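User: Hello! I'm new to structural biology and keep hearing that structure can be predicted from sequence alone. Could you demonstrate with Dephospho-CoA kinase? Please show me the input and the output so I can see what each looks like.

Assistant: Of course. The first part below is the input, the amino acid sequence of Dephospho-CoA kinase. The second part is the output, the predicted structure written as tokens.
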Amino acid sequence: MIRVGLTGGIGAGKSTVARTLVDRGAYIIDADVIAREVVAPGTDGLAQLVAAFGDDILAADGSLDRAALAAKAFVDDEQRKKLNAITHPLVGARAFELLEAAPDDAVVVQDIPLLVENGSAPFFHLVVIVHADEEDRVARLTGQRGMPEADARARIKAQASEADRRAVADVWLDNSGAPDDLAALAHHLWDERLVPYERNVRSRTCARRPENLVDHRPEWSLQATRLSNRLRLLGAEKIVGVTHVGPTASAGERAADVLDFEVQLAPDVDPADLDDALADGGFPALTPGLHANADPGRAVTIRLTTPS
């Protein structure tokens, strides 16, 4: 199994990618669907919201009046935190239930609008960002959804910036063209990366690695930061440091497109203690203390070191 975090700004086309991946066989966990489910009539979530914000957030049929709730919950930070304290744990618990129910060979796509904002990128094998320029997004929101332009621009400005999204993106899908173009990109992602990645993780197989030298790429540093965060999370208290080393860490050098990491382990930690966590996270062992990538789209070498 691999977990794919899917996100993008409002109007960027994330739903098109999600539908395409589901059609190809992805197991979807949609945060927006869950957020509605946990506050449906008769749920504990709805009861908590009524207790916190009053009976007037209910519609005549007893369902949640989202506009009425928004009028109360988004007036200031204190009220927004009150709302989040109720809904976020419920959404998280339900998402975990769905994840636990996924098949062992699933490509799990978690559609999370605020993935960047909530800092959850390191928890995924891959993060896929769907992007479109602001003017394209405004045109879609006003033309297809009937949203007033001022509201559309305000919603866009309130979300993560393009730079923030690029910082966590393992895959960047540009939706500047037609919906069919975006769907074609999603099909290619499924065939060329997601399916072989999941198969490699399940079989603990390292992907093929490039050998040809290429000019230094500025994105190597950003990619190394993302992977360092992922490795620290996988190792938890067993890892005390992750350092990007080797040719790709040196500006200006030609190198094979392989990111090398030296991972410093805590005292008394046996490198074998990390084999399962790293393999499940996408980095199976080549030899004792040496791991590589299962992801066919990002070559990595990880050497585990212990204090002398």
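User: So the tokens describe the shape?

Assistant: Right, they're a compact way of writing down the 3D structure. Reading them back into a model, for example: Residues 179-203 form the longest helix (25 residues).
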